[in-house]
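Researcher: Good morning. I'm working through a list of sequences from a screen, and I'd like to move beyond sequence-only analysis. For each chain I'm collecting a predicted structure so we can compare shapes side by side. This is the next one on the list. No need for commentary yet; just the structure.
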Amino acid sequence: MANLRDIRNRISSVNNTQQITKAMKMVAAAKLRKAQDKMNNTRPYASKIEEVAGRLANNTKTANPVMRKPEEVKNVLFIVIGSDRGLCGGFNNNLFKDVESRIQSNFSSHLKSETLSMITIGKKASAYFKKRKYNVIEAFPGFFDDIQYNKTSDIMASATKQFIDGKFDEVYISYNEFKSVIAQNRKTQKVLPIDPETIGNSKSDNASVSTIDYLYEPDSQAILDKLLPLHLNMQLWRAVLESNASEQGARMTAMDSATENAKELERDLRLEYNQARQSAITTEISEIVSGAQALSEN
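Model: Good morning. Structure tokens for this chain:
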């Protein structure tokens, strides 16, 4: 059995850890509220842009370069959104393993022929895929220290340009979609090429008015050419906000579990300390009684 000083030191260490995890939970809760507000404000805007773009794409005869459907998918790009910091449970690893599973199932030939590339957002995503020798063409560590729309639009604009130039035939975004504080949906969606039929099936509350005929000025094609890049930018921006909210929720849950575990460990250590202390007291009493008996016999 450990001595009393060692047990006291362990109790003190566990208590300090408990204070840290409790503080981190409170910080994550505050950040989660802000992240949820941004995410909830963006969702209807992104959905409406998708709905309008889908309606225009279906009613316009001229094709846009971002709608180019390749005859053969030779080069694929994945944009993977992780986090910059850890201590958020399985938030990162679950997503990364899901991405690897999808790649092995659907793009194993591209992986072997080195025609699969990645853009990683967040330190954890960059470190994970670089360590496993994936072709990471761009990495953005420290991205979530200052989340800005301009940063995501630059990333999406670069990916779109490479798609239009024919460097990539398909572009996917992988991220954690916010479901609740304790749950996230691991999601991988194809953003390029844009399929008019897919984006035309909007799930927004106003989808029922899609049959209304509109008059466009200057014309529907010009509006569509302006709207599609905005739609792509909003897809990545929304994914970043969803991922950020999911990260804070996962960290809040992980720190709450860590705090509870620390409390339980502290209770066990205090019980062990009391048992050790009682054993020491009993031993001392036995020694005193034995000494007293020896003196009385003499």
